[in-house]
Amino acid sequence: MKYGINFTKRSLEQLEPSEKRKRYSDFGGISSVRGLGIDISPSGDKTFRYVQKVNGRNVKVTIGKFPEITVEVARHQAKEIAQQIACGINPNVEKRNRRNADTFNDLFAVYEEMFKLDIKAGKRRERSLKGNQTLYNLHLKPAIGHLSTEEYTKSDAKQLLNRILSQKGYSLHNHALTLLKSMYNRADIDSNPFSTLKKVDESYHRRERTLSPDELQRFFESIDQEEDIYRDCILLLLLTGQRKATVLSMEWREINRANQTWTIPTSKFKSKKPHVVPLSGEAMAILEKRSKQAASGEEFVFPSKRSQSGHITDKSGKGGFWRRVTERAELYSTDSSKNLQVHDLRRTLATYQVTSGGSLQATSKLLGHSSVSITADVYAHLSVDNVRQELESTTKFMLGRSTPSPLEQIKAQILSLSDEDKEELRTFLCG
């Protein structure tokens, strides 16, 4: 027999078992989900199940036992199951397929199919799936694609991730771990050798390469020798502080000339809402110049007829515009810690903004960080340096030690010069 009640934690806890199995449906509440029910066995087990009639036959999908599965989770999963059925997918068949994921290649195939459902539902972006496909095909498939998931141990998992960490770095290590955990979770496999493994703390490995004033000068001299399209692109990378992919694919429809802003859509950005970038006068001047030179109906700010994407690309390899620029400026090195990378321009802008007195809040908004705490974690030490300088001046004032005037500072520097340098300075001033 079936009964209808509004599912709450308390109402389900109060349900008592009887001699025969009873089924209660979720009914009467503002959040109730049609088709969701809970079966109570004579032993007292309470199991959430979703039932929907398809082509005249009931499709019954087991969700899990209460209270391990909460009412909120059960309702959420019931809605997802209903969506799968609406897309012509039988969830029970999908579950069997997941359990039959013999190899990691099978496991990733299940992951792809489940991810595509999330894309259809608007929960995830196709761009994210493509990124994970690239990650798996390049870095995981050659190593473990053919291996059995059933025989794969936690020790094997540690060895794989340690090898990635030593050969490819902490960032790929963390992305690989996230993907592998998700593959197991989506496949509904209980035994997950990656479940207890932790990401590497990025603060111990974070790259801090920025351009010094002298390097900036050489950098500007180098990009001046590039074609307009590449010079303008690099300048906008520096002046906006945005990521390489978003600048290369910048579209005219994203630019608001009246407000002097650039709105990056969610399809290009790691956020659930568009990111609005304020554009400086220098950045707007570049865009105005490019607008005048653009062909009628041109979609991209930096178009390319040779690229499949329709805009310029750069792999940062030999022959690319970035390699040319860094080699001319003597900023290229085989040592990755010294070699200037495109992302270092973003870090350079943020560093100069903070050290010149800019707030972490403004810098966070510019970079599009989801939280100011992320920005503070990376750039707080620079803000502290500013505070320290102000504190030095305040301390000297309080103690009656006034800070030397600019003229007094220059005099002190001149007095410290050698006789030869003083003579050269005298000749310069008199000339």
TrEMBL record:
Keyword tRNA processing: no
GO biological-process terms attached to the record: DNA integration; DNA recombination
Organism from which the protein derives: Vibrio gelatinilyticus
Coiled-coil stretches noted in the UniProt entry, renumbered to this chain: none
Assigned keywords, A-Z: DNA integration, DNA recombination, DNA-binding
Name of one Pfam family that matches: Arm-DNA-bind_3
Name of the molecule in the record: Tyrosine-type recombinase/integrase
GO molecular function, one term: DNA binding
Domain of life of the organism encoding this protein: Bacteria
Organism lineage string: Bacteria, Pseudomonadati, Pseudomonadota, Gammaproteobacteria, Vibrionales
